[in-house]
Please model this.
Amino acid sequence: MSSTHGLPSRAGSAQDVTYRWLKRHIAHMPRREGSFLTESEVAQAAGTSRTPVREALLRLETEGFVQIVPKKGAFVPPISDAEVRSVMQARELVEDWCVRQVVARGPEFAAELDRYVEEQESLLDDHVAFIECDRAFHRAIVRSAGNPVLADFYESLRDRQIRMGLRAVVGTADRARNVLAEHRAIVEAVRAGAADKAGQAVSTHLAGTLAALNVLDGGADWGGGAAPR
Model:
């Protein structure tokens, strides 16, 4: 919450802290299980009062993470196969458009992306850091495309994807090294200034991620088609 003069208030700071805590907490909840969160329980766990909890939950409701149920609390719904497909399809639409915009920067931008890939390769034994670097790689492409609305939307998609099991994806056989190879293919297409090739490299990468999520979820039918990167 902000003061009437636009400066952050103490309550606003508490809301931001609580919002981030709640988002992390929700992100690590099992995706196939629904659960209720109460203001008092969250306040106790997060070490804050109920007011910033209430405000943070309302904020998360607008983003689709929870559903406020009067007199019961905030319901964190299970994530359906259809939602997984939808998030991945949205990622593909955003990332395909963005990578086609950045190819004009050619070798200069490719060199920047190379550094992310090199850092990822050094993080093969640290799955959490590997995924954080993965997100930074894709974020660099999306932000460099120059559309801040799409960049904000993309961040919300990645937040949703954490709960879908993305961090566990790199724990599947050879997936982390496949991610590196797929990232390098994207970088080489950017370096060559080849928009169609870059778009296809992104599509292949996201399809691989979706396939890995499929394996983690016991072989559920995701409906085919290219999905998440």
Observations:
- The beta strands are 35-37, 67-69, 73-76.
- Confidence is low (pLDDT under 50) at residues 1-11, 218-229.
